[in-house]
Amino acid sequence: MKSRVNARIAIAALICLVSASAFAAIPEFTQDFEALDISDPDALGNDGWLVYASVFEAGSGNFLYGYGPFPAPNNPAAPAFSNIVAGEGGAEQGAQQLSVFSDYENADAHTSGDLIEANVYKEFTIEASDVGKVCTFAFQAKLGALEPPSTAAAFIKTLDPDAGFSVTNLVDEDMSSIGTAWGGYALELTIDAGLVGQLFQVGFVSTATNYDPSSIIYDNVDLSTDGGGTPGGIAAYSQDFETLDISDPDALGDDGWLAFATVFSGDGGGFLYDYGPFPAPNNPAAPAFSTIVSGQGGAEQGAQQLSVFSDYENTDAHSAGDLIEANVYQEQTVGPDDVGKTWIFEFQAKMPSVGGVTPPTTALAFIKTLDPDAGFSVTNFVTADMTDIPGDWGGYTLSLTIDAGLVGQLFQIGFSNTATNFDPSSIIYDNVVLREDEDVSVPDASTLADAALRQNFPNPFNPQTRIEFALDRAMPVELAVYDVAGRLVSSLVRADLPAGEHAVTWDGRTDRGNAAPSGHYRYVLTTPSGQTARSMVLLK
Length: 540
Hints:
six-stranded antiparallel β-sheet; mainly beta
């Protein structure tokens, strides 16, 4: 059963500290408690079980304080949170089981009638390799000594440490009314790319006061995963927005669009805070990030388009003159099979006649890669400035070639704007396409043993761009630019060069001295060991 986060859990999560014992990536594990030493007070903690408690005021339910996390105890002489018990199982459960209950050592809270929410759980950090995994938390359980108004539940939970440990998923099962006979239960959660870097928890919780009985007995705990393991890979995508329900506030989110915002100080541009990611909204009555619009297209665009703009619901930032960078995007994870592929992001765009970008507001389209293992630092950022585009529809193209170092990283395509003071910021987009460059006339990107070719900068560019490459040793090299049909456009280098770093500037002209047209090009580095290529866009 999937439920919305209740207020108590949400508040508890906000004050939760990162556990030093949280494991990287989500592993499979099983525990029947048979091999744990029932007399060892550290047996559960040594097995990776943690505890955390939140205390709420009697009557009002207001949050008072929290404590933990720390290793789960196993001490019947001091009953707090958890204990290994014997003699509660049948043939399937064996000799030993896990009992989860309130923290009866917190005498102050119980005596005052305050509610103690006691959590016993295992915790892991979600990595890029977990994306696509279906995580199933299965266990057996029976009633211990719980009596109303005490409650109990089992859960799968994710928490975002970059957003105050807010709960981003809660899949739970109410255990308060289970019977005294053993039963089997299972919870399930699929890991998406937006969860990378967050905490993943599976466990059990009880809420009690006045020393009321609260125990549930658990056994044969199993966390299994299906899929994932290897980052999924980039898939082609296209959207003309015609089939999306313009009246459905979840239409964009259900199509995989995400929103994320970063707020900077209006005084010096320093980072203040960020929020997201979350499903991109589609609600013109509450203008934030994005909405589907109609009547903005021509024959090629059809009836419906995508409008991207600032988060005008963040009134605090706009009123304070702070800058809101609002991003609306699709996100995937780079897989091993993507190495060497060039991905092309194509779309059409125009400036609307009403509500369009007004300086100092800026807008851009982008391809971006981020490394979740390095704090989601940006490793590639290919952009097209949309701030001053005309009111007529135009076509735009961005591209990025995937190298081996990007495997496991996040790959994003989308649109961004930066605005403040409620200034207009809208750009209209349509006919969005992400496709693999299948042109084989120009050599595909590959890794050379003796050289490295870097992404040009800026990209897109007009009128010139800088191309850098490095040689491990002195050697003859050629660097040339080709169009998408594989025709030679410009020979930039044909020489014997020494080892080290090299750079050349292409001025956007052909070998004949003519200005090359706007479009998608590939630049190819040839050395004695082979060829490698990258893509770039000349945008006028």
